[in-house]
Here is the input.
Amino acid sequence: MKKIYSLLFIALTTASVSGQVVISQVYGGGGNANATFSNDFIELYNRGTVAQSLNGWSVQYASATGTSWAVTQLPNVSIQPGKYYLIQQAAGTTPSTALPTPDLDAVTCACSYSGGATPTVQPGTAMAASNGKIILVNTITAQTVIAPTGPQIIDKVGYGTANDFEGTAGAPAISATLAAFRKANGCTDTNDNAADFAALTPAPRNSASAAGTCAPLAVSQNSISGLRIYPNPVSNGTLFIETAANAEKTVTVYDVLGKKVLNTKTIDTAINISSLHTGVYIVNITEEGKTASRKLVIR
Here is the structure.
């Protein structure tokens, strides 16, 4: 049993060698009375081991119960492993301390975008001080539902009373003097906002900040080209697994005790996991002699 727990621990705390950009800090009280900073901000962090391009991506904000998502298009830049990326959003009416130099000033931006589009001014999103939801998306198309799902969603943070979040509950409510911080300097990612975030004094970090290290991230296994697993969390009993080859693959699922709860061979992208209960699992995928592991949350 000890060996099983050890193997599961390795699987739970590691991921394939890749760029893994997450939302690492959220602050919506900028420019409010007694605010720590004049502007709202969103901070990203690359907890992976290679650079990740933001070309064609966006961050999108909605109110705690809203279906209208405000889009901030990200420029054609890359976040290096272990580095942060600071996005300045709207300012409130009570000036306070300026943010560290933002990597993207979404209020007045002259950035390099793909497709020849180079907007010189973006509106800058005014985020709620206490409750709201933010998604990192690999498209600039605005989402239109309360709880967006699909392979376009890179990361999601609901805070306070938000009606959409990862995992069991949202991150803590924040304020003019509190930001939602992803734990372990941005490294913690169990796909559960309640467990992954704490409300702390805002401390925005930009690309000039010291690099962090999420060790260990790499695993001694071959990566599978183009591997995508979605949605995650799963709530409808169907998991989709796509790869560049889309060849026959073996899919094995383990629970938190290391017990094998599902094992199947398939050439389809859809996997029926309706027999599994709510919780955290490890999914092992083997295709054409290559193997990868991913965390999976079922709710």
